Amino acid sequence: AASVGCEVDGAILPGCDAFLNLDPGAAVVGFNFAHQPRLVLIVAGSTFVFQHPPGVYFTANLTTFDNETVPGGLGGSVMVEAFLGRVNFTDLSMLVSGHGFRIRFDSPGFPTSFSPPFRAVPGTPVWVDILQDVDHPEAGASFVQQPVLAVTDVGGNLVAVPVLISVVSWRDGARVELQGTNVPTMGGLANFTDLTINRVGNDFLLVFSVSDACCGATLGANGSLFNVSLGGSAQIVELQTPENARGGFAFGVQPAVQIVDAGGNDVSDDNASTITASIEKDPSVRMEVLGSLLSPNTHVRDLEAFEVNGTTYVLAALNYDGVTYNVQSVLYRWDLTTRSIVEVQTVASNGAADWDHVQVGGEHYLFLANGFRQVSSVDDELLGAYVTASKVFHFTGGRLVEIDSFLTSGAASIETFAIGTTTFVVVANNFDGLRTDIDSDLYEFHPASLVGSTYLTKIQEIPTKAAKAWHHFVHLFVHYVFVAQAFDPDANSYITPSVLYRYSGGSLVQSQTVMTSSVTSISSFHVGTRTFLVLSNAGGDSGSASSG
Questions:
Q1: pTM for this predicted structure
Q2: Rounded CA gap, 311 and 303, in Å?
Q3: Beta bridge partners of 396
């Protein structure tokens, strides 16, 4: 007669019920057991290896603690032939998760043996299934039936570790703006809550993707095609602003409005609504101090506000904190609910002077002009370099990601503008540590460049004198750029000509000069077909206060 024992550290032990020599907590679905079962056939009542003929096979089955078989619970080679009295399993793995499992070993003519009880935890993501798809959405409104997805391991068990599921929308082979929030799984399930499409049309498609940071798996699932229908009347949009108002007379230009749904689509079948007009004073137009954000010693040179997907962000260019110019500039988000500014991110900067935002191809980019990189301080004298790197950032996922940098000389401002399909960037180089009569630079910005190549191409070097600011504007369909100059080193005077340039033939061509006095900023506005520029003069011949 023969029985089944086990071998532990080279010693044959009878009656050990096929001891597995594995940590019960180490069983992970989809992965081979860290320690595979090894059985020994012995002569009953002894420790002698049983001599058997060929063709003796042992089968491994997963069971509950009460010996109920779990069909399909084990992966790998579950039937192994005995060789010289030993049965060595090599690739058994779990396909189900849970606790209170045992492995039963069977072979005709031998007593049944069991492993000790153990548990198995879910494995890494392998499958993504859509449990609930979008159904009959209306434009501009959150889908009434939001998607629900399940992420499972190789055995079909819901994964235990949260993974983020992102979603994009497509139609006719092109991406369509989708509003809403990507969600992480909880217990293997992802429940979307606020997905919205503003456009009306047929055959939209949601594409879901999972990126598993643990093991590098990239998975995805496509929803079913669906149509987005026109919503009900939701808001009134002004198409034409009234103009030329005079007391007692009809407006020279009458207002025109349009009724649209929540997505901004024309509700053309609305023949029942009545629109009334009244002339009132807007009570909401007022200024209110909501609190301060920075310490009193912090020098802020610029604030840049921009909007992404309905959320307003504000960037503060922090120039100096009372101790050093190497300070963290700050990205804030405006919280509409609490009517407050919330800090989102800090960005390393060196004497930050200016931020500028530009949108290219639907993506948002931010340019930071750095003016001074402090190296040390000796006897309260700050030492450093005015020639330093200004930065280019891509705004993605609610944060700024640096994608490029370029050398500037005491950069005082940066201006971006588009002409046709080309985006230009011009930097006001103010001082290189020795001189103020240095070149400022005009670049073309190519955000679609391959990763690893520069996104900026310098196309023109423009002689400037202590350049303080650039300002772009359009007059009668012609593009102009004005540079404010703060100091003339040749005349040793703050009274110096600032210059108006016209864009022509791929470069900036000087059009006119205007005498200014240490200009600090420029703005423009239009009245009818006329364009006006406003310059702020900071000082007279000696740099002291002037008439402005």
A1: 0.49
A2: 16
A3: 399
